[in-house]
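Sample A.
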Amino acid sequence: MVDDFDTKIDDMKNEQDGVLEGTADVDAPASDSAAATANEVDALEGTAVADAPEDAGAAADSPRIPEFLQHPATGAASRTSQMVDEEPVPTEEAPGASPVEAVGSFFSEGAAAVREMSAARKAHAEAREQLEQLDATIADEETELAHRREVAANYHAIISSETARRDGATKAEQAAEAEQARIQGEIDALKERLQQMKDADSQTEKRLKAALDAAEAREASSRENGARLQRRLDDAKRNLEKAEEDQKNGVAAAQAAVESAESRLAMLHDEYAEVQRNPSANSAAYSVRADELQTEISDAAHELQSARDDLPRITQELEDALAHARKAVSEAEKPMDDAKQAFREVSSAADEARNTYREAKDDATERQRKLKEEISGKEKERRAQEQAAEDAREEASEAQALIDEANDIHAHPEVTETIAARLEADRAEREEQAVEVEQLASTEKAVRERTRGSRARFIGAIVGIVVLVVAVIALVVVFMNR
C-alpha cells in the first residue's frame, strides 16, 4: 500500500503542470463540481499508465484462419482485454482502526481506480490501432488481388501488346544508336575540319602579321626620316633667320663705326683749329696739347680709314653668310617633297597591311564560329538520340517487366488464391476486431464513469500534498534567505 503511494507520488511529480490544472478544477464552485471533477479526471487519466498492472486486461487469443494464411501485420491483432466492471470495494475499517490505516486504504483505492482507467484506455487504443492496421492490410490485399486477377484475365493480350511494345522499343533503341553513331562521325569530321581551318588560319595570320610588322617598320623608318629632314629644314631656317639678323646688325655696326670715326676725327680737327687760332699763354702746355691732338687726329684718321675699309668686307662676309644660309634652306627643302611622298606611300601600304590582317582575322573568326555552331548543333542532335535510345531502353525494360510479371501470375494461380483466402480471413478478422473495439470503447466509458469519484478524490489528495510540499519548501527558502 505504501509502495503504491510512493510510486504514484513519483509519477505525479513529472506532471505537475497538469496536476495544478486539475487542482484549479477541483477548487471550482460547488455548482460546477461535477464538471470540474470530470475535467480533472480526464486530464490526468494517463498519469498512472506505467503503474497499471499487466493483468488489467486479459488477452484471449482465438485463431480465426489457418496459420499459413496469417498475415504478418495482423498476428497480434486478435488479442482482447477483459476489463473488470466493478469498482474496487472499499476496505471496511475494523473497529478501532488507526488513522494511518485509513489513509493507506484511501490511497490504495484511488491508485487502483487510476490503474483500472489507464488499462481500459490502453486496451481500447491498442484494439483501435490493430483495426487500422487491418484496414490498411485489407486495402493493399484488395489492390493486389484485383491487379493479379486483371492480369490473369488479360494474360494473352498483355503478352501480345507488351511483346510488340518491347520489340518496337528495342528497334527504336537500335535505330537511335545507329543515328547517334552517324552523327558522331559527322561531329568528328567537322572537328577535324575545324582543326585544319584553325591551322591554316594560324599560318595565314602569322604571314600577314609578319607583312604588317615589316610595313609598320618601314612606316616608322619613313616617319623618322621625315622628322629628321624636317629638323634639318627647321635648323636651316633658324640659321637663315640668324644670318639675316646678323647681316642687318653687322652692316649697321660697320656703318656706325665709320660714322663714329668720322665724327671723332672732325671733332679733333675742330679742336686743333681752335688751338691754332687761340694759342695759350703757356707755350709749353700749348705745344703739348697740339702734339696730343696731332697724335689723336692721326689715330682717328687711321681708325676712320680702317672702319671704311672694314665696311665693304663686313658687308660682303654677311652677304656670303646670308647666301649660304639661304642655300642651306633650299637644300633642306629639296628632299621634303620626296620624303612626304615616300611616307604617304609607306603609310598607305601599312594601312593596307593592317586592314588585310584585321579582315583576315575577322574572317577566320567568323568561319570558325559558324563551324563551331554547326558542331554544337550536331552534338545536340547526338544527345537527343542518346536520350531517345535511353527512353527506348527504359520502355523495353518496362515492357519486359510487365511480361515477366504476367508470366509469373499466369504460372502461379495458387498465389492469387492464397491472397484471396487471406483477404477473406482478414475481412472476417476485421469485423470481429471492430466489434471488439466497440466493446472496449463501452468498457472504457463505463470504467471512466464508475471510477470518476475515486480518481478525483485520489488526484485531489495528491495535488494537495504536492501543493503543501511546495509551500513548505517555499517557506524554508524564504526563511533561509533571511
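Sample B, a different protein:
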Amino acid sequence: MNLHELFKRVQKKMSPAQVVIASFFGVIAIGSILLMLPVSHQPGIRVSPIDAAFTATSAVCVTGLVTLVTATTWSLFGKVVILCLIQIGGLSLGTVFTYFLIHIGKKVGLKDRLTIQAGFNIDDMGGMVRMVIMVIRGTFIIEGVAAVLLAAFFLSKNYIWYDALFYGIFHAVSAFCNAGFDIIGDVSLEGYVGSPFINIVIMSLIVFGGIGFSVWRDIVGKIRYKVRPAVKKKFPLSLHSKFAIITTVVLILVGTLYFWMSESNNPETLGKLDASDKWMAALFQSVTLRTAGFASIPQAGLSEASKLVSSILMLIGGSPGGTAGGIKTVTIAILFCSVSSTLKGYQRITAFKRSIPETILRKALSIVIIMLSLWIGGTLLLSLAEQSSVFPYTSVDLLFEVASALGTVGLTTGITPHLSVIGKAIIMLCMFVGRIGPLAIILSLVKRTNQVNEKILYPYENVMIG
C-alpha cells in the first residue's frame, strides 16, 4: 500500500478535522523516532525519548520551546529533521500532500478539499486547489528570498559559506513558520539586538507567516485587479482580512509602546541599550509575541508586569489560517465589535458596514473561554508538577510558559529545560492544542447527531446579567 492509498483510507474513516489531528500526530511520531536515532545527535550526547518527543512536538506545532539547546545537541541530520518538521507543521501535512497530488496528476477529491479547508480553518471551500498552489509557491518564494538575505548576513559575520547558507535557510523557515527555533546558540537573537538588518528580515517573516493565508489570497487578488486597468470590477478586502490586518498592526504598535515605556529603565532588558536600539528591541519583542518565539532581549529579565502582558499577547497569537497559534486576532476583533455594537445599542454586530452572524460570536466566545480555561488549568497543573523543582520560578513564569505553549510562541523565562517529565507532557499537550485549535479538537471528538435537537425551538426566557 502506497502513501496515497493509506491517506485515502484514513480520510474515509475520519472527519476532515480528525484527519488533520491524526496527520499532526503521525508527523510528531515519525519526527520523535528520527530524533532518537544516534545519527541525529552530536557525538557523546544522549537524548531521552521524552526530550526527542518534546522537540518533535515543538517543531511540528511550530512553537520553539526546547528542553535541549538546538545548536549544540543535534547533528546536521537532526537539524535537517527539525527543519522539515517545522516546514510540514507550518503548512500542515494535508497542504503538502495535496500539492504533491496536483503535481503527479492525481485528482483532488472532495475529502481532500475538506481536509485543506479544515487545515486552513476557512469556511469557503471554493478555490482550494488554487489556494494550495498559492500557499506553497508563496511560502517557498518568501523563504527563499529571506534565506538568501540571511545567508549574506551570516557570511558578512565571517561564517563559512555553507554554514551561512544553512543558517539562512534554517532561520528563514523557522521565522516564516513562526517556530522560533534557532541554531545560533542558547541566547536566540540576543547577540543581534542592535542589528537592524536581521531584525527587520526576521520580523517581516514573522508577520508574513502569521497574518494568514486567506489574507494573502485577498491581497494577491487585489493586486491583480490593480495591475489590470481593463478590469473594471473592484476587489475589496474581505472583512476577515481587514480584521486580521488592523488587529495585527494595533497589537504590534500597542505592544511596542508598552515595552518601550515599561522596560526602558530595566537594566536587564532595554535599559542597557542605546535609544535607537531600545525602540528596535521593543518592536521586536512585540512582533515576536505574535507566536514567533525569537528573543532579542532576555525574557527572564522582564518585569513581572511585562511578563504578564507578554503572556496575554502570546495567548492572543496570530491570525487564522496561517502558521500562528493562539486565540487569534480575528477572534479578539469579533469580541470588540460585539462590545462596541452593544454599547451603541445596535441589535446586530456590525463592522465596516457589514453584519456579523451571531454564530461567529458564539464561536469566538467559545474559543476565548476554552483557551483561558486551558491557560489557568495548565498553569495549575504545571505548578503541581513542578513543586519539587529546584529551579527558581514565580507564578507569572508558569503563566508565561503555558501561554507560550498554547500560543505556539516558544518564548520562555528559562524554566523549559528544567521541567519534570510530567511538566514536559503538560507543555507538549498545550503546544498541540494551541496549533490545532481547541475548538477543532473538541468538535472532532464530539459525535455528530442527526441534529434533531436543532429543529426544536424552546421558549425564550430572560436572565439578569451585568
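Observation for Sample B: Residues 135 and 216 are 8 Å apart (CA to CA).
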